[in-house]
């Protein structure tokens, strides 16, 4: 007579597999959350304020790591919290940093920083004008703040309207357009 073989239960294997799947899914969601909060975030551009640098409907990645180590610099394309609508993120170009004096000459349509007219090829020759109801010029950018403007100067509500933004409201550095596929490019 043969010795009785123990009967293996299938139940512990199924439970272990289920627990492994739950742990793996939780790990993936946790890692995704960490990457989105601390490393990079994707945005769809809803308006024409940055055209032709970034077109309406483009999908953009903004990285968050560089601003842990330095402040935004003039020329950077930054994402930041809208100073007027909590929870909304805007994207514009940093034009001047804290301590700089910004002036706009409506007669020639140029932006001046510390008395020097900016060379702004990204505006495609569109003039920069003051906005009715906006800030008065010349404007001194407070320390720990930046002056931001959209590249499409004739269609952008920016620092000309709401003033400088605090550096701690900056959420990322616009780096790359990744959609649509025929428009993939680094942002400059």
UniProtKB/TrEMBL annotation:
Cell location: Cell membrane; Membrane
Gene3D superfamilies: Umud Fragment, subunit A
Residues spanning the membrane: 14-35
Keywords of this entry: Hydrolase, Membrane, Protease, Transmembrane, Transmembrane helix
Signal peptide: none
Entry's Gene Ontology molecular function annotations: serine-type endopeptidase activity; signal peptidase activity
Domain of life: Bacteria
Gene Ontology biological process terms, A to Z: signal peptide processing
InterPro entries given in the database record: LexA/Signal_pep-like_sf, Pept_S26A_signal_pept_1, Pept_S26A_signal_pept_1_CS, Peptidase_S26
Membrane protein topology class: Single-pass type II membrane protein
Domain named Peptidase S26: residues: 20-179
GO cellular component: plasma membrane
Enzyme nomenclature, EC number: 3.4.21.89
Catalytic activity: Cleavage of hydrophobic, N-terminal signal or leader sequences from secreted and periplasmic proteins
Catalytic residues of the enzyme: 49, 92
PROSITE patterns membership: SPASE_I_3
PANTHER family: CHLOROPLAST PROCESSING PEPTIDASE (PTHR43390:SF1), SIGNAL PEPTIDASE I (PTHR43390)
Assigned protein family: Belongs to the peptidase S26 family.
Protein name, entry field: Signal peptidase I
Organism (species): Xiamenia xianingshaonis
